Each structure stands twice: as C-alpha cells, then as structure tokens.
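queue> pop job 88
queue> type: inverse folding (structure -> sequence)
queue> payload:
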C-alpha cells in the first residue's frame, strides 16, 4: 500500500521509535500501517493517506512557529512548516482520541462532528482558523487548549460547558468570547456567575508577544466585555462599521490607559 513520500517519512520516524525497520520507502503492508497508533506530521503537503491508518488514535500536525522566522523567508517552500491545504480527511479519522494542530498557517475550518472519541484537543497558533464545527457536541473531552486562532463561528456555550464540566484543562481562545455569549452583556454576566459558583470551568487565553498566552477567568473577561459594551453604547458607536468601532476604542485605550510598568517589572523578575 503506497503512502505519499512526505507522510511516509513521518511514518518511518514513528517506526524508528517502535524499534522496527522496513525496506521500502513509501510502501507498507496493511499490517504495518495498522500498528501506527500515533503520528506527528511535519513538512507535509497532504493528509489524504491518513485514512490508511486504521488504528490512529493520536495525531499531531505541527510546524515551526512562523512568528520566529525572518520576514524574507519564503513560507511556501519552507521545510519547517506544513503546506497542507485540505484538512477534511481529519473528519474521517473516527478513532482519534487526541488531536493537535500547532502553528499551521493554512487551516481555515475543522469539523469535529464524527470525532466522538476525542479526549484531547489542542489548536494553537493557527491564525486562519475561523470555524470549528460541533465542538460543543463532544462528550469525552478531558483537555481543551485553543488560542492564537480567529474562531468566530457560533458554538452552543451552554452545551459545551455541560459536556466539558469534568475536563482537567479547559482553555478557549478569547477571540471566541463574543460569539460564545452572542454579544449579550446579560449572557456574559450569566457565564461569569456560573464560573463563580463552580459550574463553568472554562478559562480564556489571549495570545501575547512576550509569552505563549495570558490566561483570564470568565469574571475578568466579563469585566472587560462590560466595559467595552458600555463604552460603545455611551458613545453611540453601534452605527459605525466594525473597523471604525475598533479604531475609536483603540484610540481611547492608548490615550487614557497607562501600563503598570512597576507591576510588569515585578512579574518579569519572578
């Protein structure tokens, strides 16, 4: 059974970890492929042949952090990043228990509908990722870490909270917050209160330049949300375009809010 050369190299690396050898570069028997339960994909241009790994339970799709690259580096032909355009095969990997997609500049959407066995989900630093379908339907999640994305699609937050109440780690991208509370200050207050009472375990991550991310509780995000909502309302910004609203708020923040330089210095010393 033939496998694309880049993916075959990843499989060979996995075989080395298992202490096994084989002669052909990109040809495997069904039995050989069935022994692969975990795989890290790097420097690949297609995922299509993953469907030939019937026992795959852990999939890591990982590139180097492009933020660390020189601006003159060509990303299209860079061997440090994946060049995958079609991620739809992931939807068919119904035995997956762990899925990690890290530093990918191409993925735009992800459908989790059929990945009902998923226990661990990590979506980190994928700036073009705008939609994750049926995240709230998954009932076996033990760990969720999502940040550095632009996910904005509707997710039933109540259902998500109920289905992940026992997750050991539950971190969502702060960019998801507005759609999660459906732009409602009342719902924002409601979810913050659920957190205070111990019925909401979700925290929110904001990707930062000086660290991986800053972690905020629902109470902290709610406070920021309410302040922004009141500012927009009192200054009658609702009629403005999204761009003009952001510009007005940005100008206000940079003019009126100063950084706690002493506090930042103390933090950096710890």
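queue> result:
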């Amino acid at each position: 059974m033939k496998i694309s050369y880049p993916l075959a190299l990843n499989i060979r690396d996995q075989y080395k970890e298992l202490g096994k050898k084989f002669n052909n570069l990109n040809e495997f028997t069904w039995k050989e492929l069935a022994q692969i339960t975990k795989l890290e994909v790097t420097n690949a241009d297609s995922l299509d042949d993953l469907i030939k790994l019937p026992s795959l339970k852990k999939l890591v799709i990982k590139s180097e952090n492009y933020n660390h690259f020189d601006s003159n580096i060509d990303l299209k032909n860079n061997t440090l990043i994946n060049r995958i355009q079609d991620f739809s095969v992931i939807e068919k990997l119904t035995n997956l228990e762990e899925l990690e997609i890290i530093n990918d500049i191409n993925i735009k959407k992800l459908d989790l509908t059929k990945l009902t066995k998923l226990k661990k989900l990590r979506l980190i630093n994928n700036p073009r990722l705008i939609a994750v379908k049926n995240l709230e339907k998954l009932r076996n999640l033990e760990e969720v870490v999502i940040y550095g994305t632009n996910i904005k699609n509707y997710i039933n937050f109540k259902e998500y909270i109920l289905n992940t109440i026992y997750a050991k780690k539950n971190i969502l991208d702060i960019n998801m917050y507005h759609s999660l509370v459906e732009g409602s200050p009342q719902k924002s207050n409601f979810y913050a209160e659920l957190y205070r009472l111990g019925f909401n375990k979700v925290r929110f991550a904001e990707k930062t330049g000086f660290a991986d991310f800053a972690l905020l509780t629902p109470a902290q995000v709610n406070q920021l949300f309410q302040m922004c909502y009141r500012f927009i309302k009192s200054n009658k910004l609702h009629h403005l375009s999204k761009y003009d609203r952001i510009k007005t708020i940005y100008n206000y923040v940079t003019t009126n809010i100063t950084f706690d330089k002493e506090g930042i210095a103390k933090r950096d010393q710890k």
